[in-house]
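Lecture notes, unit on protein representations.

Consider one protein chain, 478 amino acids long.
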Amino acid sequence: MSEVSALFTDFYELTMAQGYWKLGMDHRAVFDMFFRRQPFGGGFSVFAGLGTLLDALEGFRFQAEDLAYLEGLGIFDRGFIAYLADFRFSGDVWAFPEGSVVFPQEPLLRVHADLIQAQIVEGLVLNTINFQSLIATKTARIALASNGGGIMEFGLRRAQGQDGALSASRAAYIGGAAGTSNTLAGRTFGIPVMGTMAHSWVMSFPSELEAFDAYAGLYPDKTVFLIDTYDTLESGIGNAIEAGRKLAAKGRNFGVRLDSGDVQYLSERVRERLDAEGFPKATITASNELTEQIVQQLRSSRAPIDNWGIGTHMVTGGDEASFTGVYKLAAKEGQGGLEPTMKVSDNPEKSTNPGVKQVWRLYGEDGLAAADILAMEGETIVPGVPRIFHHPSMDYRQFRFVPTERIEAKLVPAMKAGKRTAAEGPLSAIRDLVRANLAEFDGTYKRILNPHLYKVSITEDLRRLKTTLMEGYLKGGG
């Protein structure tokens, strides 16, 4: 466990926390973290960042220099500063298993803690989960578009800072990348490290062929020639084949990489040359500003590409700047224990779902996921008993479903009293869960363009609670 500065929070969290402290309002509370819409116009998201978050919560501390800084602002009482000196997160976290396929409006995690603790960690929760879920989702989409092709994450130089690069490498591996170019991420997370060569390597030698020969001599078992430094078809592929013959004489294979130009045309011509020269097993890797749409188009056009090196669009989210995760109060301590609370909005989709909730995933007779249901804690869904479930925005939409024997509670304990409930396993296990989860959904939900909308609904009990609370707020003014 490494210590994390508790100053990693929005300033208003601290001003509110001091207010709660002064007014004696540090009671128990429950916050939900959920998101409002799917990124990239997609049909699913991948929940990532939980392991990073749990580590950070265990080490969340105000250091002496943090407290001195806050005291110097002239806003916080010395008594509150003394309170922060002993601050530790001692709450509980319930969450989807990291690597789960998730959908809008359902809690990805619940934080049960004293109000001050739950408030101060809000920024940490959102920053960690939002970014890694965005990148894991983007990578999963690219992996689906590649239809089994190898995905390499090459994003270090385009990521948002050092921490952004590390977090992106972790999330990309979870989402389906086979490895990363980021050596520190490889050591930190146990991710396979990968790479070929840069144009500067080729340009540093008197000739392209000498550059290829030198590299093949150094790394005969991991040789991929970058063939577009000068002219892909006139010199690059020819020199790669000549250097490759020397490797073949030693029983080694090789590959080539295309980093510019018309990738479909060039890959087809390069494949023809490789096959004609007796190298049918030589691989072709494509890179250069690839997106899932480009990858899918090249796949559908049967471009002979084996591997994909993707950087910018994978580690930044490309055309989607952020994941729309939010953190909202769902219950607070009252006279008889935890009382449900909700945010009411003129926009029904921004009204929250109150109370302590569980998410149940229902499966159909075909074994595929059919719907996710938000239910009040303690509610049960019985196999074989028909149920009516309602749209979470409280409009007229509803559906009838007869649950099968397979009904799964998705929120499970991840942290108790500030300590993880289990040590984190290898990142590859989370990556495997993504694949297993995606296999449980019909292909229509996984389309890159115009995916089918998966059902996220609420029970009659939760709908009734929302109606009662909303009517009460409207009558009482809040």
